[in-house]
Design brief:
single chain; 6 helices; three-stranded antiparallel beta sheet; alpha+beta; four-stranded antiparallel beta sheet; about 45% helix
Amino acid sequence: MPDPRFDPSKSVTFDLVHGLVHLEGAPSRLLVPADALAALVGAAGADAAAVFGRSLGDAMGRRVAGRLAGGVSAAPVEAVVEHLGGELALAGLGSLAIERWGRALVLVLDQSPLGAGGDALLEAVLAAAIEAAAGRRVRAVRLGRDGVRARFFVGGDTGAGKLKAWLAEGVAWGEALVRLHAPPDAHSDRGDA
């Protein structure tokens, strides 16, 4: 049976009598201005922002896994991205798409109201969401930002570590992804998507 498309109808309900917002029957949610959230996350520091982002992403990933028949591993990657994109959109974090760079998975997030200052938070959200949905450890690394569009590599510790190092050295993200796919003997620190 094919996986159902993401259906946002009735995902968010408003209990105006009690002043509550619910997401798919989960405990109450808050509607918070993006700039206030960005200020709070910035003041909290990198570690607290990562914990907060992982908490958001974990809940998203569990909801995605619960919707896909046969689990995430049996679903096409496009279906998983559609459902994860729906979760991010419901949270007001932007619009998600996928790009394929060889074996590398690159997620593209457009129109996040958090801007460049929120990219570290988004790394944590994306990694935790995919971990919770797929049941395996992953890391997300922001590759670059073009205005309102940010690209994130999602993969294992080795590939993510190499990408972070190359980006820190000033290697363009496209070149870093090419290096990631080079055979191990082509360069001593290349290979391993």
